[in-house]
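Hi R.,

As promised, here are both runs. First protein below:
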Amino acid sequence: MSIALKAENISKYFMAPEKFKVLNQVSFEVSKGEFVSIIGKSGSGKSTLLYILSTMDTEYEGVLSLNGEKVTGNKQNALASFRNEHLGFVFQFHYLLPDFSCLKNVMIPALRLGKLTKDEIEHNAYEKLKMLGVGDQALKSASKISGGQQQRVAIARALINEPSIIMGDEPTGNLDSKNTAVVFDIFKQLAAEHDKTIITVTHDNDFAEKSDRIIEMMDGKIISG
């Protein structure tokens, strides 16, 4: 099975108020199509790690490779285009533009990528919304639908450029148990049927237990997984 993500001896320091090592020689691999949950108490370093894995933070020691490509040391422009093409993001807050329709929100990353025509992007966005069970909400303003529906629209947006890796930062943190189960099932399906690699940071132990693998962190180190 091919490796989607490889982290080698990732270390990270915070410099204020004094120098502090927040990540300490973190190394692990994630296979293509694997659904991994990263857990740990607040301050364990899991969100800091995800920020590095997402290529947003480049101030670290060690080497990060995604889809077989070393991304450590790449320039910001190269990283931005890599993210747009290969990575999808789902956050605790959906970050939808409230006055835009759900459809338009989903289309934005693809319009930015500019590989398809507007009609093709619109068609793909509809298909993603339908796949996630919110096709009937496509033309409504994002502010006019429920929280659970908003998070599904946010997942559709994360999928619009067909990324191979999806990263979630507390993706069910604002959802009730029913909608948490829906989001989990979507992620599970994306990994099992669409070969997407899913890496989520979560406080929800029930969510983590059902994923393929749990990576547990404490004091900036991986202690299991």
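And here is the second one, sequence first, then its structure tokens:
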Amino acid sequence: MAGTCSSVDSGAHIERLRAQLGGPRDGALLRFSLGNALLAAGDAAAAAAELRAAVGFDPVYSAAWKLLGRALADAGDTAGAQAAWMQGVNVAEARGDVQAAKEMRVFLRRLQRAGGAT
């Protein structure tokens, strides 16, 4: 029963975020939030689309690159995940975001060990 309520809350949250698209609050943070909510709800492909929009609004948003890589990996696009994390590492290093760069390098190594990337 708690799972049902959570699912309903998640759906309502996603719809509230979607209602703001194209409005004055549309931007990297809104798209990141929507992508995060979609990923949590199990829709990795839709999450990836929103996270791509987030980095389109703000190409130096390290957290969005990191989550985009995860969404792509969850959607089965290992090459896309690798590319997103590699770009994310570059962005994070340029911004001095050491922790995000470190995390994305770990994700890349795991992907490579799993045979999903070269």
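A quick note on the second one: The radius of gyration is 15 Å. Let me know what you think.

Best,
J.
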